[in-house]
Specification:
This protein is α/β, with parallel strands linked by helices. The protein has 13 helices and 18 strands. The radius of gyration is 21 Å and the shape is globular. The protein has helices at 80-89, 108-121, 144-149, 165-178, 189-192, 201-206, 214-230, 242-253, 264-268, 290-302, 317-320, 337-346, 353-367, and strands spanning 4-14, 19-28, 31-36, 50-52, 57-60, 62-67, 92-97, 125-130, 154-155, 182-184, 197-198, 210-211, 234-236, 258-262, 307-308, 384-394, 412-422, 425-429. It starts with a strand and ends in a 5-residue tail after the last strand. Helix 7 packs parallel to helix 8. The strands form four sheets. Strands 1, 2, 3, 4, 5, 16, 17 and 18 form an eight-stranded mixed β-sheet that branches. It has a four-stranded parallel β-sheet with strand order 6-7-8-9. A four-stranded parallel β-sheet has the order 10-13-14-15. The structure holds zinc ion. Zinc ion binds next to loops.
């Protein structure tokens, strides 16, 4: 007998099929078997186990293409186990793990290590990005082809930019041949050296050195030129500056192979929202001006920014207590991203629910070439989140993540994930729900 589950009576929202209506979803052997109204009344399905989804959204599991799981080497901050549990709690069923671990994932055997550990311990599916340069030092390219054979989904030196444009060109040529994207952390390190906040009001108010927006935009512009030169797919990570969004918009108008993502913290917060010297608001790129945040929202609305990704970057409390200048960059985000999207993008009419899910599931699937997820079409993996869209909750410092470095603690949000299914099986269930 096939293993079955019937998700009954929820509002199915699936941008890939332009569906937004109450339907039943039949799961068989870990895959979507059917999505239809009145399925539960079929005689053959009367005895199938049922998950009652009345009043809930039934959506394709989210795909977060920018996540730091910290394993190997920094298991005190996060592990594959805790990071994927955090993902499941946030409705995320696939994460792309960034390679800046210790040591970095820069060889085929390191790729295999993360992949097999993720299969053994992960609560959700884990894709692996390989480093672009050996040790992420920016000097010598890694064996990209060998890592592709070991199963990487993208190449990136994230955490650090690719400062050497010639090396970047060679990496792009290789990525193009292999058919995978290059994800770039766009930052001119000479312009941002020694800075910990945005250049402008934040830096002036706090008496700290700031990063100018141009440090991001010059590299975005360079990457657009190198994408045009090579034809490779360049994906701009965590876009934050208005001028960068404009550059990507123009590149897309010209038909270039350039895409971009924005984080929940950049579409929700700006530099004026960061209180005092709290290092939980220290991230790279930094929170920028209100005008920059506006531009990110415009980019998300018009599709210039293809995807929402968290840049989930766990750091233990000791490190964030070092204060703004010394603390490491980065904030966690997996457990709050969907609620931030529902509250600030859907709630403020920037995106419809369908468009939000496009940015958080269908688009990342497309950018990473994943043909078996990001949709509730028949035959897809049964990766599904059940969400109560109207439920209010306050973000508390109780996370599945090992780390607590969230700028959203204390914030009131709408939208609660009630359950997350991976391959039709519960990876997360909210308290007493369901
Ligand atoms: Zn990152």
């Amino acid at each position: 007998m096939a293993e079955r589950l019937l998700v009954k009576g929820g509002l199915v929202i699936d941008p890939s099929q332009n569906i937004e209506s109450v339907r039943d979803v039949l799961i068989e052997d870990g895959k979507i078997a059917e999505v239809r109204a009145g399925l539960s009344k079929q005689p053959g399905l009367k005895d199938a186990p049922v998950l009652d989804a009345q009043g809930l959204w039934v959506i394709p599991g989210l795909i977060d293409m920018h996540v730091h799981l910290r394993e190997p080497g920094r298991e005190g901050d996060e592990t594959i186990l805790t990071g994927t549990r955090a993902a499941a709690r946030g409705g995320v069923t696939t994460v792309l793990a960034m390679p800046n671990t210790e040591p970095p994932v820069d060889t085929p055997s390191a790729v295999s290590f993360v992949k097999s550990k993720a299969v053994a311990e992960g609560a959700v599916r884990v894709l692996v990005a390989g480093a672009a340069t050996v040790g992420q030092k920016g000097e010598r390219l890694t064996e990209i082809v060998g890592m592709v054979r070991a199963g990487i989904s993208a190449v990136t030196d994230d955490g650090r930019p690719m400062m050497n444009s010639e090396l970047m060109r060679r990496a792009l040529e290789c990525c193009k041949d292999c058919g995978i994207p290059f994800i770039d952390h766009c930052e001119d390190e000479h312009l941002s050296a020694g800075a910990c906040v945005n250049e402008g009001r934040a830096a002036t108010a706090k008496g700290l050195r700031g990063m100018p927006w141009a440090g991001e935009t010059v590299m975005v512009s360079r990457d657009i030129a190198l994408s045009e030169l090579t034809g490779a797919h360049v994906h701009i990570a965590h876009i934050s500056a208005a001028q960068s969004v404009t550059a990507v918009r123009l590149a897309k108008k010209r038909g270039l192979n350039v895409t971009a993502e924005a984080t929940p913290h950049h579409f929700t917060l700006c530099e004026e929202d960061a209180p005092g010297y709290d290092a939980n608001f220290k991230m790279n790129p930094p929170l920028r001006s209100a005008r920059d945040r506006e531009a990110v929202l415009e980019g998300l609305a018009d599709g210039t920014i293809d995807a929402v990704a968290t840049d989930h970057a766990p750091h233990g409390p000791g490190k964030k207590a070092l204060g703004l200048p010394l603390a490491p960059f980065g904030v966690i985000g997996l457990e709050t991203s969907l609620a931030l999207g529902i509250t600030h993008l859907v709630g403020k009419k920037i995106l419809s629910p369908k468009k939000l899910l496009e940015r958080m599931s269908a688009a990342p699937a497309r950018l990473l070439g994943l043909k078996d997820r990001g949709s509730l079409k028949k035959g897809m993996l049964a990766d599904i989140a059940l969400v109560h869209p109207g439920e209010s909750w306050t973000v508390e410092a109780r996370f599945e993540s090992k780390s607590r470095n969230s700028p959203f603690i204390g914030m009131k949000l709408k939208g609660q994930v009630r359950a997350t299914l991976v391959g039709g099986r519960a990876a997360f269930r909210h308290d007493h729900a369901l």
